[in-house]
Specification:
146 residues; alpha/beta; 4-stranded mixed beta sheet; 15% strand; globular; binds calcium ion
Length: 146
């Protein structure tokens, strides 16, 4: 039986964390990744649950973004907090989703996550620019595993 750890080596995980750090240098938005094998729940509902479990609703500008992946279900959800949803069009995450989907469908799991994180950072930058005076790393960049 496969485990979540089998999908990413330690090295790959570090590359993804580096991508999160890089993305967060251009935006005040906070990006996190949660990976698990499977859920019986609706994927969107589960992403929302994880978002709250990780206390991602505690950012100052309510601009946390969770990339939730259920590996065995071949499903992922990009969920942004209400500070984002209030100011962006409803198709805001489409480009990020498409990039991730194209990598995932070719089996490039790590690259899909990296490109997704970087794209999310670019999108967020337009609405939530990074501010040298106020920026903090509000949410851990480590990958959460379920
Ligand atoms: Ca930050
Ligand atoms: Ca962070």
């Amino acid at each position: 039986m496969s485990k979540v750890e089998d999908f990413l080596s330690v090295q790959e995980e570090q590359e993804i964390i580096a991508a999160i750090r890089k993305a967060e240098r251009s935006t005040s938005g906070e990006i996190r990744i949660h990976i698990e094998k499977h859920t019986d729940a609706d994927h969107f509902d589960r992403a929302l649950e994880v978002f709250h479990l990780l206390k991602m609703d505690n950012t100052r500008l309510q601009n946390g973004v969770l990339i939730y992946v259920a590996v065995d279900d071949k499903s992922f959800v990009i969920y942004g907090d209400k500070g984002i949803n209030n100011v962006v069009p409803s198709n805001f995450w489409d480009a990020t989703r498409d990039i991730m989907h194209s990598h995932f469908s070719q089996g490039n799991f790590k690259q899909g996550l990296i490109e997704g994180v970087l794209q999310a950072g670019l999108e967020l930058q337009k609405h939530f620019p990074w501010d040298v005076d106020t920026d903090e790393d509000e949410l851990s960049n480590e990958i959460s595993k379920g």
